[in-house]
Amino acid sequence: MPKTSKVEDKTNKSDKHPERQVLEIRDLHTQFSTHDGVVKAVDGVSFDVIEGKTVGIVGESGCGKSVLARSVLQLIEHPGQIVGGKVLYRDYAEGEEAASQNDILALPSGGSEIRSIRGGHISMIFQEPMSSFSPVHTIGNQMVEALRLHKPISKVEANEQAVDWLHRVGMPNPSERIRAYPHELSGGQLQRAMIALALSTNPSVLIADEPTTGLDVTTQAQILELLGSLQEEQGMAMMFITHDLGVIAEIADDVLVMYLGRVVEEASVTQLFQSPQHPYTKALFTSMPGTGEIEDNRLPTIKGSVPEPHSRPAGCFFHPRCDSFMSGTCDIAEPELLAVNGQQKASCFLYSEGE
Amino acid sequence: MWVFLAKRIGIGLITIWALSLFSFILIQLPKGDYVTSEMIALQMEGENVTDEELENLRIYFGLDKPVHMQYLSWIGNMMRGNLGYSYAQRTPVNDILGQRLLLTVLYAAATVVFIWVVAIPIGILSAVKQYSFADYSFTTLGFIGVAVPDFLLALLFLWLGFVFFGVSMGGLFSPEFVDAPWNLARIWDLTKHLFIPIIVLGTSGTASLIRIVRANLLDELHKPYVVAARARGLREWRLILKYPVRLALNPAVSLTAYIFPFLISGSVIVSVVLSLPTIGPTLLQSLLEQDLQLAGAIIFLAGVMTVVGTLISDILLGLLDPRIRQA
Amino acid sequence: MTVDTQENNESRDVTLASERQLVWARFRRHKLALISTVIVALFYLVAFGAEFVAVNDPVETDAKRSLMPPQSIHLFDGWKPAPYVCEMVGKRDPVSLRKSFEADCTKRIPVQIFARGFEYKFLGLLRSDRHLIGVGDSERSQESLVFPLGTDVQGRGLFSRIVYGTRTSLSIGLVGVTLTLLIGVSLGAVSGYFGGFIDTLIQRSVEIVRAIPTIPIWLVLAGILPRDWGVLQIYFAITIIISLFAWTDLARVVRGRFLSLREEDFVTAAMLSGARWQRIVFRHMLPSFYSHLIAATTLAIPSMIISETALSFLGLGLRSPAISWGVLLQATQNVHSVALTPWLMIPAIPVIVVILALNFMGDGLRDAADPYASTS
Ligand SMILES: Nc1ncnc2c1ncn2[C@@H]1O[C@H](COP(=O)(O)OP(=O)(O)OP(=O)(O)O)[C@@H](O)[C@H]1O
Ligand code: SF4
Ligand SMILES: [Mg+2]
Question: Residues enclosing ligand 2, CB less than 6 A?
């Protein structure tokens, strides 16, 4: 399924077709076999990624956000393994009717099909821009490589397009910076370059794994703004991962809250901020600096610590830390993710007990 | 890059200087100078040597000057390629060493190439296919390669060659080529003879380079930039060769700089066991005969060779890694 | 003078103890390293009790039994567990005049453990004639001797000579490594503790020493040792020569550790409390990386052993009457004769085994001490 020109007709599609799923993730399971036991890093996660929209994924460190993101592109390495589920991808560039659904996870690993999806249809940007570029190759080298992998263009053309993209992401002096090595650029500039690289192939989905963590606040805001405006121009869908609810508020349309490999709450960003339902989500809000009741001026955290991922507690995984813990229920059965308030879903016995 | 190079060259020069002092002291070590010993020899043969003649000889050889002047003139001669005079063999050192120097350099350089050609692909394979049968076999072989001293390996090859093929290996040329002028046939003959010595000398270096390439590559293989490149849709082998291998090679190159002294060192012993016409057997011979003039010159030359070899690998490293180039 | 906080020390001791346990727990997981440790221990045990392990007097020559091949020890006489060896009968080929030996199993020499043999003074004190194995008491006479690994040209038992050589070669490794440790730790500590100019100076010296081709220099130094020196003098001289260039690795390890330790709280606390630097270095800093030091030391021993063996092999190290593995291997310099008497190559085996074992042990220790460090 080689793709050629989908740039031209993609931009205004989201207006015509308000709710078109590009990605449907169904019951995804990814686990790691470690010395201490099996870590179910992603444990039955399902959600949709909608064209032109952003789904935000939020949760504490280690809850499986990055593993989820990598699983989508079959990027899990030993000792990890995707053990179940589907990632259905629909390529609207081939026209509405022709858009066949393809299970990315069923594609032979390392084959040409998965490779044309990686970076071509679905691009990814990462948390540490400095270490996500090879330190001994120039930025331009890596950008041209990506462009020529997915577009039938010459080196010169690729170079021109790369400069053009660096310009679009606001890199100062792009025709010179393209020859720079990573250590010669600042973190913010590198993240811009990373975004330029990811978007230069006109992907339909951008997966951003904590792209602003580690940057200073001003740069962080600039990058978020850049991503927002580029998304509008390109009309792509975005999967945005962060552990910062503030960032979610700025960029996401829908939100998934993850805890120990599972989605515990799913809602639109307005619903989530107006009325968080799951006790874990509420705790996340309380621990957010600048909201909730902060007792001293330390960065507040949720009480207790995240349990060892290889030995999750019985019943509701959150029960040892939950304020609303109900003995006899929460520590025995596992709650299911069910609708609680229209589109909003949560997995908690506070809402499903009566049924 | 220039700062880096200047620093390296500086260290190289200091090393050479230290070695030159060492060699010079060595040469000065025998009690009495050459003229005196020569005179005794002449007197034993019944000749009559006057003190005046003796003094003239001293002046002729510059032995009347203070030690530091002698040192300067010695090092000056060395620099100009005049390696001095072996009083024991009554021959200029240049004539004794002759093509042995060339063969030593050739031998060490060929071994470096061998180490690279063998160790890098194996190291890459071992890392990429970690825990595979091949990985385990190479790791085991590598351990043994490091543990068997060069000279034992040389002995083993000699012995096997003798027991199973009835040939006595050793030497770098077949008899008909020993004194022949350089031509294609002679070079081919040399190549054939170099094979075993290269394996013997290169084994431990190969083994440690395999270990280092493997360990470095394992470190690099899971770095974010590799995942990022994979997420870009690059073919797996191309990706591995372009990115992590490229980075894992840097320490491998700096290792080459580090093993160069070991190669020159090792070539001495291996050459003795396999009777190769390099500087090794000459050095041993000169020491057993207490011919310190010759020994001093050889030590100095071995040092210069090492420093130059190290410098070359340093330059390679600088070309390979932009971070060093900048520093 | 110092307010060297008692409390601080106690908490250090606690963390040290648990650190040691942790290292040990990690080390135990390396099966190969564990086995290697046992092998190394066995070798040192043999070195320690060389007189007891040896079967024959290692210096007693006898032209009649020159170059006798190894005698295999039969464990059973029929069904009876009665170990014996067959007597070796020497014959001279009438044409080549070469002497050869053949086992004559009609004459059996009984072998037993803890047998009586040549007399020795254990550690120069205890007089004894008991040996690990030897000719059964009933048959003991000048004529019946056992040579498990054959004899050398002068008719001396190779097994016993290897056993005595073990003592020399392994102890050179230990003495040399102690010297190396002293030089390396002092320079590394000074370099890492004081930093600045001294550090630069020492670092440059390390680089220079590393750039020097060691073997030629060893050869020269060993070559200019006075010919009339005794065994013991040569022994120490050789050890010093070998250590002269071996300290750089240890110095590097120690320096790196010191640089990172300088930033640690407990060191800062000790510095602030006004403790003298010697005290800080030896009481606080060195103990916190004993395991690294042990690993680096273990990994330094093999090259010492190789160096001694190589030097002696070339005739520039220890010389007869000293017995070391290298001295024994000198007999193999002539391939033509080795082809006829292959057992003379046997001393190469302990060299390789010990070096392998020490390498595995050192690697295991290093991994256990620092599981996250890369191997480079
Ligand atoms: N290579 C690996 N080997 C073993 N376990 C792993 C590996 N990678 C991830 N895990 C496990 O998977 C779980 C999820 O990890 P993941 O990196 O997805 O967390 P995250 O939500 O992205 O956290 P962060 O915010 O710190 O990036 C963790 O508990 C971790 O222990
Ligand atoms: S199920 Fe029980 S323990 Fe879990 S979040 Fe809900 S109330 Fe808390
Ligand atoms: Mg993550």
Answer: A 279, 316, 318-319, 322, 324-326, 330, 335, 348-350
Q: Between chains, do B234 and A134 touch, taking CB under 8 Å as contact? A: no
**SS3 for C128?**
strand
Residues B207 and B278 reside in one and the same domain: yes
How far is it, in rounded angstroms, from Cα A180 to Cα C362? 43
CB contact A118 to B (< 8 Å): yes
- What number is the ipTM of this complex? 0.84
Give the gap in angstroms from C-alpha C209 to the nearest C-alpha of chain B.
Answer: 8
d(CA B152, CA B157): 9
Domain boundary among B92, B114, B136: B92
Q: Where are the alpha helices (DSSP H) in chain A?
A: 7-10, 13-16, 65-72, 112-117, 129-132, 139-150, 155-168, 174-177, 187-199, 217-234, 245-251, 269-274, 279-287, 349-352
B131 and B87 share a domain?
no
* Shortest CA gap C31–chain B (Å): 15
Range of the domain at B259: 98-325
pLDDT in tens, chain B (327 residues): 677 788 888 888 888 888 888 888 887 776 555 666 666 666 766 667 677 777 776 676 666 677 777 788 888 888 787 777 777 777 788 888 878 888 888 898 899 889 989 999 999 999 988 888 888 888 888 888 888 888 888 888 888 887 777 666 667 777 777 777 778 888 887 887 888 899 999 998 898 888 888 888 888 888 899 999 999 999 988 999 999 998 888 777 777 777 777 888 888 888 888 888 888 888 888 887 777 888 888 888 888 888 888 788 778 777 776 666 655
Q: Both B105 and B83 in a single domain?
A: no
A254 to each of A48, A236, A241, B312, C161, how far by Cα in Å?
10, 15, 12, 59, 82
CATH number at residue B108: 1.10.3720.10
Same domain, B272 and B157: yes
Q: Are residues B120 and B249 in the same domain?
A: yes
Q: Which of B144, B151, B278 to mutate to test the interface with C (most CBs of C within 10 A)?
A: B151
**Do B159 and B272 share a structural domain?**
yes
Ligand 1 neighbour A39 (Cβ under 6 A): yes
Residue of C207, C210, C212 to mutate, interface with B, max B Cβ within 10 Å: C212
Q: Between chains, do A181 and B323 touch, taking CB under 8 Å as contact?
A: yes
Q: How many domains does chain B divide into?
A: 2
Please check whether residue C187 is in contact with residue C247, taking contact to mean a CB–CB distance below 8 angstroms.
Answer: yes
Question: Which residue segments constitute the domains of chain C, with CATH numbers given?
Answer: 64-151 (no CATH), 161-368 (1.10.3720.10)
Which sign, positive or negative, has the C-alpha torsion B18, B23, B26, B28?
negative
Give the residue from B73, B92, B111 where a domain finishes: B92
Name the pTM for this structure: 0.78
Q: Inter-chain contact C375–B11, Cβ cutoff 8 Å?
A: no
Within this chain, do residues B209 and B318 fall inside the same structural domain, yes or no?
Answer: yes
Identify whether residues B140 and B62 lie together within a single domain.
Answer: no
